[in-house]
Structure formats: C-alpha cells, structure tokens
Amino acid sequence: MKITNFNINYKYNNYLKTTNFKKSRETSFKKDTVAFFGNYNDYDYEIQKLKNKNARLEAQIYSLKAQIEQNNAAIRKLEISKSEENKFLPKESIKTSLSYSKNLETINDAKKVLDYFGYNPRINEDGLLTIDSYKQPAKYTFEELGIDENKLFKFISEIKGDVDLENSNLENLGNLEIIEGNAYFGNVKQIETPYGIQTYSCKASKIKNLGKLQTIKGNAYFDGCEIKSLNNLSSIGGKASFKDSKIEDLGELVLVGGTLNILDTSIKNLHKLMFCSTIYHNNDSLDTKSFNAINFDASDDEEDEDF
Fold first, then answer.
1. Which residues have a Cβ under 8 Å from the Cβ of 185 and sit 6 or more positions away?
2. Which residues are paired to 134 by β-bridges?
3. Is 21's pLDDT higher than 70?
4. Of these four, 256, 286, 290, 299, which has the most CB atoms within 10 Å of its CB?
5. For the chain, domain boundaries
6. pTM of the model
7. Dihedral class, residue 243 (left if φ above 0, else alpha if ψ from -120 to 50, else beta)
8. pLDDT digits 0-9 by tens, 158-205
C-alpha cells in the first residue's frame, strides 16, 4: 500500500493568496449575512472595514447637514425679502393672493396668511402655530385686507418675540399661551433705542379677553386698555403697567419681574400675587395684608420714570 502525504498547509496558504479568493471573500457575503471565520484576524479585518465605511458615511452626513443648513438660511432670506415686498403690494393684489385662505377655516389657511407677511409660522408640538412676532402688516391692517384676527389667533399658541396690537382689530387672544417678548396692548410704548428707552403714545388696542395666555416673558403694557380680567395670566417677566385701564383684579397673576403700576385703576386686592419689585398705586383701599415681600409706593406723584 502506497501512502502519499499531501502538504495541506502549503496548498491552503497558497490558495489564500490567490486574487479570486480575496475577491470572493469580500463579495460573497450579502448584506445582513453573519460571516464566520476561523481566524481572529479575519474578524478584525471585517470589523475595521465596516468601521471605516461608517466613518465615510458620517463624513458625508455632516457635509450634507451643512449644505442643508446653508440652503435653509438662503431660503429664509429669500422668504423674508418676498414677504417684505408682499407687504407693499396693492391691496387688491394681496386680497387676490390670499383669496382662498383669508376665511381661515384651517390651520393651513392661517399658516399661508402668516407666511405671506413674513411671520415665519411653523407647527409646534401642540399642533398649533409658533410665529416670530406679531404686528399689523406694514401698509395695511388685517381688517383692511378682510382678514379676521380673532380667527387667526385660534391657530397661534406661541409668539417668540414682541406682540404689538396698535391698530389691531383683535379682541381675543384665543389659544395663545406664551409671549416671549414684550406685549404692547395699551396706549403707551417703550422702545429701546441706541439713545436709550423712548416712550411713545399710541392708540390702545381693542383687546378684551386674554384667552389662554399664561406667560409674558418681557414687559407688559395695558395702559388705557379696556380689558377687565387677566384670565389665566400667571407671570410677567418684566414690568407691568395697567395705569388708567379698566382692569378690576389681577386674577391668577403670581409674579411680576419688575415694577407693577396700577395707578388710576379700581384694583382692590392683589389676590395671588407673590412677587414684584415695586407697586405704584393710589388706592387707599388696596388690600396688601397677604403680600409682604414688596416695596409699596402709594403716591401718584412719585411714579417710576420708566412708566
């Protein structure tokens, strides 16, 4: 009997070196297939290969995100330019452009109207709209354009900047819950300029109901306003002025970050108010027993100069 000893290791190693085997090892495994290798070096090779692939993909994703951000910035710039031009178009042209939306039957109608004038509306987690700020369009009021602001505010829950209701026909803030800037509802405006704070007289708004409003993070001006109740408003981050307004009580108001001016009002009780820096009032019957951490100025001759 003749026995032939084959050099298996030699033939196997020689086979490993062939180009065909290398290609087959790299291409024969389909996606989501688990490959088993008899050598730890093979595992390391496959692991590193996939890590390198992920690194390349992550670099591509980062580059694409940067491009998307640049495109979005360019789009927003063009939208602002377009909306600024829209504000000065002839009235009839604006009405024609918004003819299918001005009845404000849906949130998309409200979004289209607000977008047309550059308020940058976007749907938030409440399913309502967030806008950058609010005031009348430059050339015409919403009323002149046939747009009902009271319907519009049924679709707005958050305003990131100032709210200026001069020349507005709005009477109810609807579903609005938060104003992150200043609220100009009264017949006085205080605007910060390079030369300091400037005070302007204006026509008081027609606002009668604050709806669901809970927070004003900036200053709040209700001077000469027809509003009688603050409803659910619980905090004003800056100063608050109700001078010569029809306000009857502070309702749920707990905090005023600055001074509180209630001169020439019929407010007799501070109710839930827990903090403010100074109160200006001229009402001898004002009940202050429940409020201790406060500086009272009961003289109407020594008003805060900012008011």
1. 163, 165, 204, 205, 207, 220, 221, 222, 225, 227
2. 163
3. no
4. 256
5. 8-81
6. 0.69
7. beta
8. 999 999 999 999 999 999 999 999 999 999 887 777 888 888 888 889
